[in-house]
Design brief:
Length: 145
């Protein structure tokens, strides 16, 4: 860490790295008190948007204040996407209507129909449960938590 440039900015309990990941996106580090415990977080923020780091702080605080064992539908889908091997995920193309091109897809075992290419955001709750690892299948929905 000794060869890193000084922070781009420091604001109370947050600072941004001077080295950009790409374009105007860089690392921002936060020190947040969650449930009376000081915790540290890292996120990537687009500094061309002045409110980006504050929105990230709010999102982290909201997420970390929820019960630990809860996931939103979006978090479940992101987990499926990130844990699916590249060979079994991709983006909608000519098989789909033109307005769907570029949306994320995953291969799904459809029983008697065999393997089916499905849009990630159109997976049913049952299909999502089938794609999640066992320890995440029966977590309550974060909205109900």
């Amino acid at each position: 860490m000794f060869e890193i440039l000084p922070p781009l900015w420091m604001r109370g309990d947050a600072f941004a790295m001077r080295e950009y990941l790409t374009g105007s996106i860089t690392s921002v580090f936060f020190a947040l008190t969650v449930d009376n415990n000081l915790r540290f977080f890292h996120a990537y923020c687009d500094l061309s948007d002045r409110a980006s780091s504050e929105r990230m702080r709010t999102a982290i605080a909201e997420r970390e204040s929820r019960p630990v064992k809860a996931m939103t539908r979006e978090e479940r889908l992101e987990h499926i996407w990130s844990s699916t091997h590249d060979d079994y995920r991709g983006y909608a193309g000519e098989r789909f209507s033109k307005h769907l091109w570029g949306k994320r897809t995953v291969l799904f075992y459809g029983g008697q129909r065999g393997t089916v290419l499905k849009l990630l955001d159109q997976l049913t709750d049952t299909e999502i449960l089938a794609k999640l690892p066992v320890h995440l299948r029966y977590l309550p929905d974060a909205i109900a938590a």
